């Protein structure tokens, strides 16, 4: 496949995508992924692709066969106890992506993180490998690091998104800025020359708030979402994924999407 064919594995004819990241279990402990192959099998009807670690890509190859596969190339371990906060460090690259038939690779990019220099160099090396193999890169661009909503201002997200694009990312994954409007986000996406998708972050436990955030993101120019824990840890994961898909692909209202979950 060439680069565009690989990207097309994630995007429907409307140019939008619903990606389900299930790459959490080497970074944080969450319930719901005890049997990843079984979980993928139940979710396939509701999503366009997955972000997976190498082990899951190999173990669930049959279930992933008809979906976009994005290989997580780094480990985004948060600080724990006396362990250093390295933010993110690369584990894999294009060779492993080719081995498991991945259509994209994903790596963190943390502008202004204490380990910014190392993270940027590793992301740049990954992009260099992608140019040689036609496997696209999705950089997950988050100011300062993972799970820092106070730092996810419009200004900081705007810089992070554009920095990822400038580095050569094919798609940028980012957080919806804290307290932002759709118009605020539109200024960010308008100033970025590659597609932008929005992550979900920690499980909210509030369907309406989640769907409203995604609606603002789509109205603000996002071409899709990569929502993980808010689906995985939901009591009705397939239904919430279908509700999210309705907003992304069908331009459904929040109220109509909520009916899908009930």
Structure write-up:
- This protein is α/β, with parallel strands linked by helices.
- It has a single domain, classed as Aldolase class I (TIM Barrel, Alpha-Beta Barrel), CATH 3.20.20.70.
- 42% of the residues lie in helices and 15% in strands.
- It is built from twelve helices and ten strands.
- It has helices at residues 3-8, 36-43, 54-59, 61-64, 94-99, 116-133, 154-167, 182-190, 207-219, 229-232, 237-250, 254-261; strands spanning 17-21, 49-52, 68-72, 74-75, 89-90, 104-109, 137-141, 171-174, 196-199, 224-226.
- Strands 1-2-3-6-7-8-9-10 form an eight-stranded parallel β-barrel, surrounded by four helices.
- It is globular.
- The mean pLDDT is 95.
Count of structural domains: 1
* CATH topology heading: TIM Barrel
> What shape does the CA trace take?
globular
Rg over CA atoms, rounded to whole Å, is 17 Å
Summarize the structure.
This protein has helices spanning 3-8, 36-43, 54-59, 61-64, 94-99, 116-133, 154-167, 182-190, 207-219, 229-232, 237-250, 254-261; strands at 17-21, 49-52, 68-72, 74-75, 89-90, 104-109, 137-141, 171-174, 196-199, 224-226.
Output the keywords:
262 residues, alpha/beta, TIM Barrel, eight-stranded parallel β-barrel, 15% strand, globular
Could you give the topology of this structure?
Layout: H1 3-8, E1 17-21, H2 36-43, E2 49-52, H3 54-59, H4 61-64, E3 68-72, E4 74-75, E5 89-90, H5 94-99, E6 104-109, H6 116-133, E7 137-141, H7 154-167, E8 171-174, H8 182-190, E9 196-199, H9 207-219, E10 224-226, H10 229-232, H11 237-250, H12 254-261
Parallel strand pairs: 1-2, 1-10, 2-3, 3-6, 6-7, 7-8, 8-9, 9-10
Antiparallel strand pairs: 4-5
